[in-house]
Amino acid sequence: SSGINAEYGDAAATDNGDSQDVLEQIDLIQTQLDSLNDQASDEILKVEQKYNQMRKPHYKKRSDLIAKIPDFWLNTFMNHPQIAALLDEAEEEVLRYLTQLTVEETDDIRSGYKIIFQFKTNPFFENAQLVKEFSMSESGEMGTTETKISWKPGMALTEKSGGDKGKLKVGSKRDREDPCSFFSWFEDNSVGGDEVGEVIKDDIWANPMQYYLDIDEEEEELEEDGDQEDEDEVEGEGDEGDQEAE
User: Of 145, 167, 170, 172, whose CB count within 10 A is highest?
Assistant: First the structure.
């Protein structure tokens, strides 16, 4: 009995030793993978930075051409469901004076970006340019700084739309997914996620024509699929005709 127990004990010790060796090997491989992942992230960032620089002259040409189209940005915003939901009639009128929209990412891309709105002279505020800047803090939270809007007398839309509604004290924290209006969003400098900013940066700025022309991607795909089916049918009919001729 004691001999059998001793054999089991030796076997268990051997198994434990083998398992420890295997775990150490797995840990070593994971360390190597982590190092490769870090290296990949660095190289991907360099590629993104390179292409960001290459895009700039194209963005400049696009902006110059867009400036020639009346109400381009107003119509683009109104055709985007998330942005349109923020706009009341007075804000739509303000956006008739918006001549340029620009998004600039920080050099390292990851730490933030800013959205620049340029306006021609208008009856609502004195500013020719309004900038909302998003920057990542050391704790990983996104904060914002904004141009102070110099509203003309009696024209402060954020006051007309409900006083303090939608506005928070500086540094207060909440999820900003549901601002009550476009300019209350602009003036809101609370800490947290900003869905509107992301929509403008990743959606509208990336392809404003899609929204200006009110192109539905799903409808476009369906039309392409329909065209392909028509082509296939024509080809099929042609094949049948060839076979009959033979």
Answer: 167
Return contacts of 146-152, CB within 8 angstroms, 24+ apart: 146/186, 146/187, 146/189, 149/125, 149/183, 149/186, 149/187, 150/125, 150/126, 151/124, 151/125, 152/123, 152/124, 152/125, 152/126
Task: Give tens-digit pLDDT for 31-86.
Answer: 999 999 999 999 999 999 999 999 999 999 999 999 999 999 999 999 999 999 99
The model carries a pTM of 0.71
Chain length of the chain = 246
Q: What is the pLDDT of residue 163?
A: 39
Yes or no: say if 117 and 169 are a contact pair by the CB < 8 Å rule: no
- Tokens linked to 34: 């982590």
pLDDT digits (tens, 9 = 90+) for 223-235: 566 666 666 665 5
Token duo for residue 167: 């506005």
- Residue with structure tokens 């360099």? 46
